[in-house]
Design goal:
There is one protein chain. This protein is an alpha+beta fold. Helix content is 56%, strand content 19%. It has a single domain, classed as 2-Layer Sandwich (Alpha-Beta Plaits). It is built from seven helices and four strands. A four-stranded antiparallel sheet has the order 2-3-1-4. Helix 1 packs across helix 7. The mean pLDDT is 79.
């Protein structure tokens, strides 16, 4: 009889633990989803941003590219970054010049550098961020002002963002 009571108590404890775990999981995910909705609303009301594209040196190791990306994201003027691999660039060019894929394929993917699109608030000032970027080893070229983006482009990416990215953007769009 004692064993049955103990077994029942253990089962009740396990059921309660599962229910509590499910509630915590749902609230965690609901929290991120609600943050994403808030972010989308703030993006609709925000001003335009300036896009900066940095091109990495050819042959730069993936680990080094990720280190540079993290370093750039540590700058308070940076709202959001988006990586474009050389494969992405190659495929974008093939898409842009449909019908001429044979010519493009003859050059191959290796002629394209990896790059990073950096979104900064216009009021942050591009001179300050350019100075910061010029000090980073591994960056070959910086193009500022050639990429003016609407925040809708960022809004389209919100659903795929991590909580860290969402929190960072929410900080900028107070």
């Amino acid at each position: 009889m004692k064993k049955k009571i103990i077994l029942i108590i253990v089962c009740i404890i396990l059921i309660v633990a599962c229910i509590v775990g499910a509630i915590i999981w749902v609230n965690t995910h609901r929290s991120l989803d609600s943050k994403k909705e808030i972010l989308k609303e703030k993006i609709e009301k925000a001003e335009k941003v300036t896009g900066i594209q940095v091109f990495f040196e050819f042959g730069l190791e993936e680990e080094k590219i990720n280190e540079i990306k993290e370093h750039i994201e540590s700058n308070d003027s940076v709202m959001y970054t988006y990586r474009i691999t050389k494969e992405d660039a190659f495929n974008n060019i093939k898409e842009k010049f449909k019908g001429h894929e044979d010519v493009i394929n003859s050059y191959g993917v290796e002629i394209f550098p990896d790059s990073l699109i950096i979104y900064v608030e216009r009021k942050a000032g591009t001179k300050k961020i350019k100075s910061f970027l010029e000090e980073i080893e591994g960056i070959d070229d910086i193009r500022i002002g050639e990429i003016h983006v609407e925040l809708d482009e960022i809004k389209d990416r919100v659903d795929g963002m991590s909580e860290k990215e969402v929190d960072r953007l929410l900080k900028f769009l107070k």
